[in-house]
Every structure is written in structure tokens, then in C-alpha cells.
Write a structure and sequence with these properties.
Layout lengths: L1 H6 L5 H10 L3 H10 L3 H10 L6 H8 L5 H14 L4 H8 L5 H10 L7 H7 L5 H14 L2 H10 L5 H8 L5 H13 L3 H10 L3 H11 L2 H13 L3 H10 L6 H10 L3 H26 L4 H17 L22 H9 L3 H11 L12 H17 L1
């Protein structure tokens, strides 16, 4: 062996391998296959010949094997010969394994319990076969807390089949999980009936509230009246407040002398109705006189000027005194409201021209004309 380790690179490896196999030197054969890069053959030799098996060497070779079937043969070999080391092998081969196939192989040999750490590590991929195997292990171990956590995090499996299996379980917590699974799958009636059978009334009330069905709520209320459970009747009115029909609740309370237990619900219902009526009154109340007057002014302005912004509100033009917008603009608005004859007189007054009652021009106009003519005569 020492000679081969030192001089193997200078030797004819195929001839040396034949010689070692003929001489049943399996350790040397494994070494030569490994150094020559034939990891598949090295794994096969260790599987077929127990004297050549070394755990660390096997793990080193098997993860470099190119043939995927070698991996599954290795799993079967470890399951039969080295079951306590099987988890370590699976952890090494995890990236290249078909996890559903591994679960199937473990079921055939009834060895799911040996690979629990591996199953938990690959459950994050949310595969159906892995989830079902893990759930079965939790049921066998009666670990209901872990089972419920698994159901919440990984839902890729036949949930109805699991619920049907759990609803007949001898432990109460597993029957509660069955009701929980029915609830998750919107089978409200089955979940509520299972909770009522186990007298888990709190779960039944939560299921009825989650269903959003008034008929289920009424059915559960009548059930509580039938079993004469006043406290659960009161809790039902509180939890399912928005789904309870007031006439049904008051009628049941009155007929069965539960008015004291229904009074909190009745007070809250009246309070809610009072708030709604006040809100509707506030929205539909007639407007005040001031608001009506403001609306009338706004409507009149909109009809007169339209939606366009008036020029006088946009600032003055170039070369015009900005104060015109304050004084002249107001005068212009007043002028627009005058009759046509008064508007003409107002314009003539601004130009310095007046019209006398007899139709003659005023004195200022005569003076301007005389002055102009005098100047003209001087020119001649």
C-alpha cells in the first residue's frame, strides 16, 4: 500500500487496478480509483466489500460521483449497514437528491424515524411528500405543538385527509387540530360540529365568527340555549356582534330568561344605531340661510362672468398704473351695470366732453375749438 501511494503516478493505473482486484486488495483498489478520478467505482467497491469501507473516505467519494443512482445505492447501503450514519450521508448529498424519492425509500424500509433531522432541514422547500412524512412523525410522537406549527408554515399536502385522520384521534389536542384544519379550508360546519362534540365552545365561537355566516351564528346560539349555557350565549353575542341578528338574539333571551346576559349586547346595539342615525341626520340636514345666500351669490357670479378669470384680476398691463385695478376697475364694473345712455355720458365726461340738455357742447369744448381756430388763424 505504501509503495502504491508513493509511486502510483508513475505506474500504469489500469493494469495495476486489475492486479489489485485479482489479488483482492480492496483498500488499494479504492485508493487507485479515487486518485484516478473514478469516484463512482470507488464507491461501488466500498459498498460491495465491507473491509474497504471507511466513512470519511466514502463521503468524500460519493459527493463527487457523477451517476445519481450511486447516491441512492449509497443511501440503501447506509440504511442497512450503518443506520446511525445515514443522516450525515443525507446531509452531504442534500443538494443533489430528489427528496420525494428519499422519503419513498424510507417508507419502504420503515425508516422514517432515522432521517427526521434531514426531513426537517429540507421541509423549507414545502414538498408534499416531505410535509406528509414530517406530519406523520409528529402524530406518532404525539407532538401536537410541532404539528400545528408545521401546518401553519407548510401547507402543501392533503389537508382534508389529515383532518379526517385526526378527528378520530384519542387525544383532544389532535381533534382540535382537525377542527383547525377544517376551519382553514373553509369547512365551517364540520369544524364547528367537531368543536361542539368535544365541548370546545371557544373554538366553535371563533369558527362561527370567522365564517361570516349569520345562519351558522344563529345555529350556534340556539345550541347554547339548548344546552343552557348562559355564559357561552353571552360570549357569542359579544364575539359575533356584527353577525348576530338582533331580533333572534332578543327573542331567544326573552323566551329563555337570558335578558341579563343579552343586555350588554342590547345596549351596544342601541348605541351603534343612535350614532348611525345622528350621522345620517347631520348629512341630510337642510343648509343654513347664510350658506344658501353664499351659494346664490356664487351661482349669480358664475352665470354673469362664466368660469374665466376677469382681466382686471390678473394685474395691470405694461405702461398702466397698477392702482387702476383697484379704483378704475371698480368704476368700470359700475359702468357696465349702467343703461347704454348713461354709459355714453360717463365716457364723454371722462374725455372732457359733456352734452348739454339742449344738445350743445359745453363751454370747455367751445374754448378748445376757439383756441384751436385762433391758433390756426394766426398761422395764416
Amino acid at each position: 500500500m505504501e509503495h502504491i501511494k508513493i509511486f502510483w503516478s508513475r505506474m500504469n493505473v489500469p493494469k495495476l487496478l486489475k492486479a489489485c482486484e485479482a489479488a483482492l486488495l480492496w483498500d488499494e483498489t479504492v485508493f487507485l480509483y479515487k486518485e484516478d478520478g473514478q469516484h463512482d467505482s470507488a464507491v461501488k467497491i466500498m459498498i460491495e466489500h465491507a473491509t474497504a469501507f471507511k466513512h470519511d473516505l466514502f463521503l468524500d467519494c460519493v459527493q463527487k460521483a457523477r451517476n445519481q443512482e450511486v447516491h441512492y445505492k449509497s443511501i440503501s447501503f447506509y440504511n442497512e449497514q450503518h443506520p446511525l450514519l445515514l443522516v450525515r450521508l443525507l446531509q452531504v448529498l442534500t443538494p443533489s437528491l430528489d427528496h420525494a424519492r428519499v422519503v419513498h425509500m424510507a417508507r419502504k424500509t420503515d425508516s422514517l424515524g432515522l432521517i427526521v433531522p434531514y426531513l426537517k432541514s429540507v421541509q423549507k422547500e414545502n414538498l408534499t411528500g416531505v410535509n406528509e412524512a414530517v406530519n406523520e412523525l409528529y402524530i406518532d410522537e404525539e407532538d401536537f405543538d410541532s404539528l400545528k406549527n408545521s401546518l401553519d408554515e407548510y401547507d402543501n399536502f392533503d389537508q382534508i385527509a389529515l383532518a379526517q385522520k385526526l378527528e378520530k384521534h384519542e387525544l383532544l389536542e389532535f381533534r382540535r387540530i382537525a377542527a383547525y384544519v377544517y376551519k382553514k379550508n373553509n369547512r365551517w360546519g364540520q369544524s364547528m360540529n367537531l368543536s361542539k362534540q368535544d365541548k370546545m365552545y371557544s373554538d366553535a365561537i371563533d369558527t362561527a365568527n370567522s365564517s361570516g355566516d349569520s345562519q351558522l351564528v344563529e345555529e350556534l346560539m340556539r345550541f347554547f340555549v339548548g344546552v343552557q349555557d348562559k355564559e357561552c350565549f353571552c360570549a357569542m353575542l359579544y364575539t359575533c356582534n356584527s353577525l348576530v341578528q338582533p331580533d333572534v338574539a332578543i327573542e331567544l333571551a326573552w323566551r329563555n330568561n337570558y335578558m341579563d346576559y343579552a343586555m350588554p349586547y342590547l345596549i351596544q346595539y342601541i348605541k351603534n344605531m343612535h350614532d348611525k342615525v345622528n350621522e345620517i341626520d347631520a348629512r341630510t340636514a337642510p343648509k343654513k340661510e347664510e350658506d344658501l345666500a353664499n351659494d346664490a351669490v356664487s351661482a349669480a357670479a358664475s352665470m354673469m362672468y362664466g368660469n374665466e378669470t376677469m382681466m382686471i384680476t390678473n394685474g395691470g398691463f405694461a405702461g398702466v398704473d397698477p392702482s387702476y385695478n383697484q379704483n378704475g376697475g371698480q368704476q368700470q364694473m359700475n359702468q357696465m351695470q349702467m343703461p347704454p345712455q348713461q354709459q355714453q355720458q360717463h365716457q364723454q365726461q371722462q374725455m372732457g366732453v359733456g352734452v348739454m340738455p339742449n344738445g350743445q357742447m359745453n363751454g370747455q369744448m367751445n374754448m378748445n375749438m376757439n383756441g384751436g381756430m385762433g391758433g390756426g388763424g394766426g398761422g395764416f
